[in-house]
Amino acid sequence: MNSEYQLQAQRLEELRRAVAAQNAQNSSSGSTIVDVGPPRKLARKKYIVESREDPNHPLKDPLIYPGVYAPSGIDMMSILVRVYNRPNQQIHIGNVDSAVALVLADAEQPDLPVIYCSEPFETLTGYSSAEIMGRNCRFLQYPPGGEAYQNQQVNESNAESRKDLREKIGSGEEARVRLLNYRKDGSIFANLLTIIPIVWDEGQVKKKYIVGFQADEGRTFL
After folding, report:
1. Which Pfam families does this chain map to (predicted)?
2. Domain ranges of the chain
């Protein structure tokens, strides 16, 4: 994340906290500006916030980073801020920004379901957000037809990386592995996967998530 993104991230975090404070002040009147809680399963690109005082005239998000920052739900900028500000960093992420392919998985749910994916992730894999949500990213290790159509050589190649991932996730550690993955069209690419556990702390709410950075080995940026 370069200095420009870091400055913008800081400003957006300040705005988020200011909005949270104003929401608290307005709660007695029944109006809410935005929800600044931890990530939720929301449809991406829907940044319209309803006003209880005038439901026929929704307010639009005044910020200029659609897909990167949204004051409600999940946003790219807040994820990257938490990744860069995480304590006890074990893996150097490098200079990544909103062009990065990433997913956010709920570490408190069984099988780590994806609750957010970036547009570059959709471009990299060919899968839409609707096809990805609620699934574990391991489905990328299988052809579009599913596990029954798995290539044995691909399966064996991924075995050691899968073992490493299970161990690191189980111990709450960061990890970087190389996996052979399938795009939606059935083509295979070498995915350099980096997983970073983060804690989403907003006031009294603390939740655990795992950020998965994906990179085509032929176009490495990490």
Report:
1. PAS_9
2. 3-60, 76-219
Question: For the CA atoms of the chain, what is the radius of gyration?
Answer: 19
User: Longest Cα pair distance anywhere in the chain, in angstroms?
Assistant: 62
Q: What integer is the mean pLDDT of 35-55? A: 40
Res. 35 pLDDT band, cuts 50 70 90 = very low
CATH topology of domain 76-219: Beta-Lactamase (3.30.450)
Mean pLDDT of the chain: 76
pLDDT at 131: 95
- How would you write the chain as a 3-class SS string? CCHHHHHHHHHHHHHHHHHHHHHHHHHHHCCCCCCCCCCCCCCCCCCEECCCCCCCCCEECCCCCCCCCCCCCCCHHHHHHHHHCCCCCCCCCCCCCCCCEEEEEECCCCCCCEEEECHHHHHHHCCCHHHHCCCCHHHHHCCCCCHHHCCHHHHHHHHHHHHHHHHHHHCCCCEEEEEEEECCCCCEEEEEEEEEEEEEEECCEEEEEEEEEECEHHHCCC
Average pLDDT over residues 29-38: 47
User: What distance in Å separates the CA atoms of residue 144 and residue 210, rounded to the nearest whole number?
Assistant: 24
Look at residue 151 in the predicted model and tell me its pLDDT. Answer: 86
